[in-house]
Amino acid sequence: MGNILNHPILRYLLALLVVLVAIFFLMDLLPDASLAITGGKVKGENLLELRRELGLDQPAYKRLGMFWEQLFKGELHSYYSKEPLQAVLAAKLAVSGRLLIMALGSLALLTAGWMATLSRLKASKWALSLLVGITSSVPLFISLPIILIICGRTNIPPVVGGGLSLAIYPAMLLATNLIDISGHRKAPPAYSILARQCGLQGWPRLAMELRVSSSAVQILLNSIAFFILMGIPVAELMLGLPGAGRWMLESILRIDLPVIYLCATLSALLCAGLFFFNEVYSAWAGTEEA
Amino acid sequence: MSAKKLSNKLVIGILAIILVAAYFFVQNRGGIDANHAKGWTLYDSASANLTGFDPIQIVDATTLNALANCYEGLVVYNSSNRIIPGLAERWEISADGLVWTFHLKPNVRFQPWGELPGFEHSGIMSAKDVVYSLTRCITAPASFNGWWLGDIVARDESGNPRITADSPLVVSIRLKKPYALLNRLVSMAGWIYPAKIDQALGTGGLASKVVGTGPYRLEKFVPDDQIVLSRWDGYTGKVGEKAPDKVVVRIISDRLAALEAYRSGKLDLVELNLDILEAGRALAKTNNDTLVSVPANNLDYFCMNISQPPYNDPDLRMALALSVDRQSLVGLFKGLATPAYGFTPPTSAAYQGEEALQKSGFSYNPAEAKRRFQLFLSKTGQSSPVELKLVYDGETMPELAAQFFKDSVEKILPVKLQLEKITWPELMQDSFGGKLGFHRLWWLIATPSEDVYFQFYMPGKTPPAGINISRYDNPEFAQRYDEVFSRTSEKNLIAGIKELEQILITDAVAIPLWHNKPEFLIRKGVQVPMASTLRKFYAESANEF
Questions:
Q1: Which residue from A55, A130, A213, A249 could staple onto A193, CB 3.0 to 4.6 Å apart?
Q2: ipTM of this predicted complex?
Q3: Is B73 on the interface with A (CB under 8 A)?
Q4: Residues pairing with B171 in the sheet
């Protein structure tokens, strides 16, 4: 067992398995799907038939097996539309993917913009603090409607506004860590991972900085990744974009268990991917130090 | 220029290129806003998804209203809520009121269903299709809508519904007892499709394909994105000269997002809720767009488990019902609702009118509320303040109503009312499970069916069964209900419905609060007739662009 756990891939598979089982039993705490589907308008015997049809009359462990079988065969169906979920998934992921690309593009541009602004505000610390404070304290659910209204009035596609919204805070976070805010080049704050990026002498220097500050880099990248990934469903919901995040949120509200399980599985895979990246990164940084 | 500055500019340049490239990538991949062409396509919006296509499993208004443009029944209803001939051109009732004979329109074609190996059908509707569709609705184990017809239609010795094809274009339906059958046939339970096509379609059956006789075909449905309906050339019924070739219904759950989509020209029609009402009205004024207010077949109410204490006491129920100043309550809704002093909606022919109902219904009467509450206290010996809990779901309007109710009741009666907000699925589960005694509920009857207005859901009660679907256990009411809905004269029927309503009011079976009156913002030049069922009649819509 110990040997198995030492193998990174097997360790991740085991963790994924545990998470998928946990998600299933958490889903089991949701209200009865058959009542949500029929809205209380269906006779008792027809309700029982629906429960049989959906497998809701089976014990939890059998339903879990059923879900896994359908998941691996690509045969999970929505309780409502009845169509195979993989047919819908590609279209949903394409929308979320476009939003993600917009967010990353905006992140790049805004980071540069923040860096330029912050560099010029180095002398006025109060202005700097005010700007950083305001930006970091405006939550997504406030910036999104504002950007939505601007998009509506200027004919900018909502996906562009959504990407911009998602990038505002991470860009500020990244920028404040990329420049030497304090101006003390010799004593940068501990969290400043690439403080002197303009002075870097090519990739070897960057690689060195990344190794030296690996913990801070990981925290920074993870924060940005989680902010954007968690923000995507909110942005999709508020902007009316038909992406995977909104699909998951709305499926939770209508108790469409197969969709919830599929989306939760994808989220778990995504999280596992991020953790795996962290592990590889740590190993890389650690090897060099050794 | 120093190397450092050059490097900075290079970095910014690269970043700008990345952003521009990302923008064009998004645009070129056909974002949801692409290809918005005006003229023949009507861009509508809905806040919820379709929940399935099979007529026997449709229970929600969004699906019913969208697919009512694709399917038809023996009778249909028009935008004035009148039941009119649909697939049947005429019908007659036997002298004893038990047998209804429908004469079908000839040469009505079904929408094409594509390749279905082994499935043989002429594509022309006949009595066999009608018998199959109605029988399946009543007998299929998976049917959600069997009760619409199942409890009215007589059965033979084998238990099969007595619906027969007397000739290729004549169908007769025998009832258990005389009843207002058209009320039930006008619903999705009465929609007709080719016999046995559900079996030929395979696994998904009719849940995977829409094969009706209506003016529009369901071209595409992408959950959380859009419903696309396209005009069907084979339709032989009446279609407006300027009806849209295509209807794209964008599914946008967030109302602000819907309004902004309208503002930027991506929608021709949007429903305004309380959150965007003022902005929508201002937009209408600026653009000279149209605001259409539609009184809906709706009732929002608080229901009680009237077989459990303390709500089994009619004095308590009446005291609570009389403590609400409904006029002030609807004032909070800025014209999106009218006060409900009784149970039938203003759209019903049996509606007594606001003035009459203030006398015979639940008018605001603090003195009487206090008196009835004292009676309740003296009977039960409860000490005051009496602690009650009201559970509700929903957004702005229910939230305001719950708080308003709490303030009103606590001001007048020695009651401490606790409010608890939960989600709709939780409410359904807890209510059916008998855990709730007092909660908010609403109905929107998506067909003009007077009898269904009495379909009261009460906590702890099972779903509808029997001819009387009110779920209200009162022998007097049940007896009157059967008698009233067997009346053939419309005038007598309406008089009977008013009598039934009075029984419900006297016993204060629930606390009616308001009837919704939704407001729609419609682009200048666009006309979309709407019924009180909130169905939009796309085939009668027009565009003056």
A1: A213
A2: 0.77
A3: no
A4: B102, B165
